């Protein structure tokens, strides 16, 4: 089977781009705004129900509410836009090909993220927490947690962004605009529900405070600019892989591998504020930033070439 056959977004010719033709993007953007509003309204009741039984921070419970609403809304919007089939969601590749492709990309994701984390350590911009290397027990626990987190995050985000949203926008306005818009949403999503509210400060309007805190982050673009641009570049890279392969198998694998390594980095090390090179990693999370941006551009060129060649080879060898 030719990999090109899975490019559901290419089944219709793209129109000449006009702003008032961005109806597909408007549907998804409206869905995101609706999820944020519902999250703000329902976060406190959800906290009252969940927190006595599950010791999770308020922002995490709120984000889970938003994800649930987003999942329900995604199904409805996908049906409305005619992208509710497997191929449009990025799962058009047969399972016997999809899973191996995902696992290969998982290995590539780990292999491409490890060097930049090591470079951060060599440059002294990240150091062991407390000045002590992690124990084997901690590494083992983090390995399982990081893998599960990476796979869950990758499946959710790739199905929404590089799956249905990418397909709908690409059909309407072309793959290039789909790459840019999904990358913008991908980057912005990392700043949602990151505002922290201590448990003792949670009250009936904390959901609105959470949204207000998120908006205040965007109101100071210089404070988050390095992180936002870095994440945007990662989103572009993943969308280019999606456009090249025609499915999200490799996107899921790459994404999961990167999250897995970053989970280790966050659990075991912390930013070194005393380092003169501290500016290379953001204040946002101490990982993404100018250093990751440069690395993303480099590996992006290599990965785009890799998947373009593999796709061309698969097309030549297919019966």
Question: Which structural class is indicated by helix and strand composition?
Answer: mainly alpha
Count of distinct strands = 2
Outline the biggest β-sheet: 2 strands, antiparallel
Averaged pLDDT: 88
The largest beta-sheet arranges its strands as: 1-2
Helix content: 55-70%
Give the DSSP E fraction (strand runs of 2 or more residues): under 5%
What is the string of helix and strand elements? HHHEHHHHHEH
Overall geometric form: globular
Q: How far is it from the N-terminal to the C-terminal residue, by CA? A: 7 Å
Summed up, the helix count is 9
Question: For the CA atoms, what is the radius of gyration?
Answer: 20 Å
Q: Stretches where pLDDT falls below 50 for ≥5 residues?
A: 1-6, 10-15
What's the structural domain tally? Answer: 1
Q: Could you walk me through the main structural features you see in this protein, from its secondary elements to its overall organization?
A:
This protein has 319 residues and is mostly helical. It has one domain (3-317). The chain has nine helices and two strands; from the N terminus they run H-H-H-E-H-H-H-H-H-E-H. A two-stranded antiparallel ribbon has the order 1-2. Helix 1 packs antiparallel against helix 2, helix 4 packs antiparallel against helix 5 and helix 7 runs antiparallel to helix 8. It is globular.
Question: How would you summarize this macromolecular structure in one to three sentences?
Answer:
By secondary structure, the protein is mainly alpha-helical.
Key features?
319 residues, mainly alpha, two-stranded antiparallel ribbon, 2 strands, globular, disordered N terminus
């Amino acid at each position: 089977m030719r990999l090109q056959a899975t490019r559901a977004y290419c089944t219709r010719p793209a129109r000449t781009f006009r702003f008032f033709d961005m109806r597909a993007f408007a549907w998804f953007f409206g869905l995101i705004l609706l999820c944020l509003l519902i999250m703000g309204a329902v976060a406190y009741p959800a906290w009252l129900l969940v927190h006595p039984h599950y010791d999770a921070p308020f922002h995490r419970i709120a984000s889970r509410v938003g994800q649930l609403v987003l999942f329900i809304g995604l199904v409805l919007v996908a049906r409305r836009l005619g992208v509710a089939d497997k191929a449009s969601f990025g799962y058009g590749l047969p399972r016997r090909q999809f899973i191996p492709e995902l696992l290969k990309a998982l290995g590539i994701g780990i292999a491409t993220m490890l060097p930049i984390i090591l470079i951060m350590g060599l440059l002294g911009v990240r150091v062991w927490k407390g000045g002590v290397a992690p124990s084997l027990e901690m590494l083992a626990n983090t390995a399982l947690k990081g893998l599960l987190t990476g796979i869950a995050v990758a499946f959710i985000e790739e199905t929404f962004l590089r799956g249905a949203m990418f397909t709908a926008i690409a059909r309407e306005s072309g793959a290039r605009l789909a790459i840019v818009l999904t990358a913008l949403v991908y980057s912005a999503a990392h700043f949602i529900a990151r505002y922290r509210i201590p448990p003792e400060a949670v009250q009936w309007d904390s959901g609105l405070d959470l949204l207000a805190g998120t908006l205040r982050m965007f109101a100071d673009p210089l404070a988050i600019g390095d992180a936002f641009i870095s994440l945007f570049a990662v989103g572009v890279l993943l969308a280019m892989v999606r456009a090249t392969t025609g499915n999200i198998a490799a996107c899921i694998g790459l994404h999961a591998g990167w999250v897995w390594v970053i989970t280790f980095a966050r659990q075991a090390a912390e930013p070194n504020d005393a380092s003169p090179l501290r500016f290379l990693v953001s204040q946002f999370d101490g990982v993404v930033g100018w250093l990751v941006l440069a690395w993303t551009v480099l590996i992006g060129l290599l990965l785009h070439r890799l998947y373009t060649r593999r796709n061309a080879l698969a097309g030549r060898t297919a019966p």
